[in-house]
Amino acid sequence: MENTQVANALERRLDLTINVADLDKDADARLKKLGRTVKMAGFRPGKVPFNMVKQQHGHQARHEALTEALDRAFGEAVAAQNLRVAGYPRIEPKDSADEALMAFTAVFEVYPEFKIADLSGKEIERPVLEVTAAEVDQTLEILRKQRVHYKNAERGAQKDDRVVIDFLGKKDGVPFDGGQASDYPFVLGQGMMLGDFETAVEGCKVGESKTFDLTFPADYFAKDLAGQTVQFEITVKQVQEPVLPEVDGEFAKMMGIADGDVEKMRAEVETNLKREVKKRIEARIKDQVMDALVETNAIDVPNALVEMEVQRLMQAARADMESRGIKADQMPVQPEWFAEQAKRRVTLGLILAELVKTEGLEAKMEQVKAKVEEAAQSYENPEEVVRWYFSNPRNLAEVEAITLEDNVVQWVLAKAKAADKAVSFDELMGAKA
């Protein structure tokens, strides 16, 4: 066996030969073994003539023998050349000058060989946010808004009001598709409708009708309306103002504090908020670290691994759609949707594996235990959560992967230019006051 021309950076080709006499011998041995148990009309088990067994099962036996012989020959060939195979080989038959031999070519990819690039020029920002009473108050305000209810208002509609309207849109005097609705509810200021539409509704009282022109944005999703000016007729049928719950004992009970202690609720909100802030800061840093690793390590990745990752992502997407009640035939999943994501994930996987191998960044058991105990604190019975994780090694797999990534983050931060940067609560949390 010998190497032939390399088609691309990671593709390899190996010539394999199989001895026909050895193949026939193996196939006959399989048939003899099968003959001890094979059943055939007119014969007792084990008494079927060998020629009849061969006639019925010979093709299968020869195929199995050939498959095993090729696997063995391929394994020996890649081991002899110390090749790390990525994915599975494609076996192609070829002509043989020797009738005693069957010839094949194995086409496959190997893992890339590379060294982690210098990261000293990369800049990474570490977000900094101290949780104070102001952030707790802002979080409580968000929680209040999430529990808003509405009451009828005897005034014109304004921002944050819930309105119910009828509307009819016309282009050149003719109603257009999607431009009509009855008893349509929405909250002003939440961006459910175009800004100019909401501005026209503001100030209107119950029973009031209004006609106004509206120009759709040039990038509006409905291409036939993009950049077009139309006319809307609206009738306001209900205006309701928001009513937020007071931060009192009843609100504390709503938030899970059984005795309604407001200070206890504030303390719990602060604890949860600090945990969430820490998680989001770590996620931002990790994203920057992974970007830096991908940008500085321009490595070739095996197409076989990318294709396998695409299939895995497609399967996960189908499972997610099914869990939401969407059937696969309603929204067929396309491989190209996941191509870039799959390539990035494979690239990162190869880089992280190289870092673990060369820098010893594997997850230590004490790190995994600390990570489990930290995560368990957000549950009602932390001890039970810890026991569940350690009851089965498979339960720890995700924690070990996260811990490994944390080790990589710390390693990169020590190599790159890392600097603290203060961030606002809204910027980090994506919250709207």
UniProtKB/TrEMBL annotation:
InterPro entries listed in its UniProt record: PPIase_dom_sf (IPR046357), PPIase_FKBP_dom (IPR001179), Trig_fac (IPR005215), Trigger_fac_C (IPR008880), Trigger_fac_C_sf (IPR037041), Trigger_fac_ribosome-bd_bac (IPR008881), Trigger_fac_ribosome-bd_sf (IPR036611), Trigger_fact/SurA_dom_sf (IPR027304)
Keywords: Cell cycle, Cell division, Chaperone, Cytoplasm, Isomerase, Rotamase
Reactions this protein catalyses: [protein]-peptidylproline (omega=180) = [protein]-peptidylproline (omega=0)
GO cellular component: cytoplasm
Main EC class the enzyme belongs to: isomerase
GO biological process: 'de novo' cotranslational protein folding; cell division; protein transport; protein unfolding
Superkingdom of origin organism: Bacteria
Stretches assigned to the PPIase FKBP-type domain: 160-220
SUPFAM superfamilies: FKBP-like, Triger factor/SurA peptide-binding domain-like, Trigger factor ribosome-binding domain
Cellular localization per UniProt: Cytoplasm
EC number(s) reported in the record: 5.2.1.8
GO MF terms, alphabetically ordered: peptidyl-prolyl cis-trans isomerase activity; protein folding chaperone; ribosome binding
Family: Belongs to the FKBP-type PPIase family. Tig subfamily.
Entry-linked PANTHER family: TRIGGER FACTOR CHAPERONE AND PEPTIDYL-PROLYL CIS/TRANS ISOMERASE, TRIGGER FACTOR-LIKE PROTEIN TIG, CHLOROPLASTIC
Recorded domain comment: Consists of 3 domains; the N-terminus binds the ribosome, the middle domain has PPIase activity, while the C-terminus has intrinsic chaperone activity on its own.
Role: Involved in protein export. Acts as a chaperone by maintaining the newly synthesized protein in an open conformation. Functions as a peptidyl-prolyl cis-trans isomerase.
The protein, known as: Trigger factor
Organism listed in the record: Oryzomicrobium terrae
